[in-house]
Amino acid sequence: MKKVPWAEVRRLLVTRTDHLGDLVVSTPGLKALRRHLPQAEIWCLVAQPFTSLVQNWADQVLTPADPLPGRLDAALGLSPRSATYKVLRQSRARYRIGYSYSERPLARLNCMLMLTHSWTTSLVKKPRHEAQVVAEFLESTGLGPVDIKPEFPLSPALEQWGKDKVRGRVVVHFAPRWLEAGRDKFLAMVRGLAPVLVTYGEAESKLMSFPDVDGVEWLGGLSLPQWGAVLGGGSALVSTDTGAVHVAAARGVPVVVAHLPRHYAACVKQWYPWGVPARHVILKENWPAEVASALQQL
Predict the structure, then answer these.
(1) Which domain range does residue 79 map to?
(2) Is the per-residue pLDDT at 266 higher than 90?
């Protein structure tokens, strides 16, 4: 890949509009861009629910509903998706920079056709975590070293609020994949882990009624920073392979990750919790007991 003349960049757009976990593991890239380009005005384009996460590294935060800034020197995509390449092309930036996987030929072709600077890698020949891929991509552009340490920044007051709310308990995040593995088994698991706090989002609240269970506190209606404070305030997190895993890891909390069998192979190679003790459980047969055992190992 040819090097990007970063010294010329004064106006930069960075985009990552997919899932929360993707954005969390890309925060080392955002930090590196901010550190290496002090002269640049940086716009971050992210999904609307996640704008608070990137405010520390951006001068302006955009959502897909907002118009793109004009007169951009560079536009950079942190996700290997054709939708990302289209945004970069629409930016009309002088330098349009992205990456793709060789195992995805259509996206790779779009990356090469739409961008001025494209980098290709392989997850089959060189399996590694998504955070490592993003760091390697940025370093290949000539940006400089990227310190791989995902972050989920919180104010000291909010961090303390989360600790006070959780009171040292294990936190479980409820997500739809638990129901695929069995509602009754999920309830048996949280009952066996009590005292425990269970978080859920607005969409998840429509999937299941939450019964009164001794020692189980159901907690919804949280903002993204509040949710991060709760996940970071527990002694450990138990979750399916969702963004909660990466938020908790970024806050330094050990994680037990529960996988549906079809997702296990990919997640343990590319999407495991970075930088914290972790255990993985496959959701088959007697998995509530396996989750409890994994927690004891942590």
Answers:
(1) 6-140
(2) no
